[in-house]
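Final report, closing paragraph on structural work. Over the funding period we assembled a curated collection of sequence-structure pairs, and we close with a single example.
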Amino acid sequence: MKTKSLGNSDLAITPIGFGAWAIGGDWQFGWGAQNDSDSVAAIHRALERGMNWIDTAAVYGLGHSEEVVARALREWKVTRPYVFTKCGMLWDDQGQISYSLRAESVRRECEASLRRLQTDVIDLYQIHWTADDLNETLEGWQALAALQKEGKVRWIGVSNASVDEMQQMQTIAPITSLQPPYSLLRRDVEAAQLPWCQREGVGVIVYSPMASGLLTGAMTRERLAALPQTDWRTRNQEFQEPKLTANLEVAERLRNVGARRGRSAGEVAIAWTLNHPAVTGAIVGARNAPQVDGIIGAMDFRLSPEEIAQVETR
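Its predicted structure, as stored:
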């Protein structure tokens, strides 16, 4: 399987990696209850099929996603994948979410993630969301840089950041990677972040390339109506009218292109993101092994210019 170097790091990653957001289960931004055994099977299938990295975050399932990842890797007896996680989102005893990039908070989070992941070092540690106050973001980034020097994390990156923020962060320590949302339905990072990362040699691992299920080809109004109320998508405007109809039309275009190539709509959606020269890899979530089989073809699938034009047509 072909790999690409992630930014300034020595991490050679496969085109897609396993996204562990959904397997966290119930919480404020969760996808509803999940079966941990199915989640472990999904991770194992992803690794069997060639993925070599897993992206999670402390807040996913209020620590539970990291614990499930640790369980999956304990039971995995082959080459260990890279494990990426994030900091900056906190929770209280009632599960209410807050945000902090204060240095001491970042350090506590890192130690907690190391314990949950049952590892001595995190391959890529990322700021999950930058703070409203730039100074707080820079304080957090300085803490990540210190953790890197101490050997607790190998490389450091940021998620959901602007170019202005990244320029300031670069004066403190080099950014290995940016993790932005990117799909046919969310293309705003094409204007600034992606070109900047390409110029600066910053890696890009995009999240939600299938728009959280909207572009899989499997999402229908009936399926959406049947989602549990604890699934965050039931409260998101992209899954509601007037946007839903237009979004499902995009999925139909993806399905049509994929049908001619023996590929799923989701695989076409992922391949579209990987076509951008700034993108190093895409994070793809799955909650059971069959879901992995339905998207793994995106690893080595590339769209022609004509197919790209067809899926982009509005």
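The CA atoms of residues 69 and 224 lie 27 Å apart. The longest strand covers residues 153-159. We thank the funder for supporting this effort.
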